[in-house]
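User: Can you help me understand a structure? I only have the sequence.
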Amino acid sequence: MLTSITGWSCAHSAAAEGHAAALALLIDAGGTTLLMLEADDGRSCAHLAAAGGHAEALGVLIEAGGKELVMLRTDDGASCAHMASEYGHVDALTMLIEVGGKQLLMLTDKNGASCALLASQTGHTDALRMLIE
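Assistant: Let's start by predicting it. Here is the structure, written out as tokens:
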């Protein structure tokens, strides 16, 4: 599969911009193998969609890649839920929790940061409320 110099595939670019329809076409063409590709820093398409708060795109990705995709971690140990928590994207976080459950929320990155820590550090109280309830 072709990727950019940073390891981004077409699916990475579409996810980062929230282009759900483009992701659906790419999934039809490349299957889940395309979704599981990781950029040079370990980020998947789902990490990028979660970081951007692109819930519709994330939904397309989750439908195709399921829990296996949601549980992928970056080189520094961050999950998709870490990304959504850090940026306060409650809709994306809700979707991720439905698939990954408590197991996903209990993951810590290589610095020991949990989703709740990231949400609290960045002042995203709605995300924090969801994580601690």
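Now, to help you interpret it: Helices lie at 10-17, 20-35, 45-52, 55-70, 80-87, 90-105, 115-121, 125-132. Residues 90 and 126 are 7 Å apart (CA to CA). Let me know which part you'd like to focus on.
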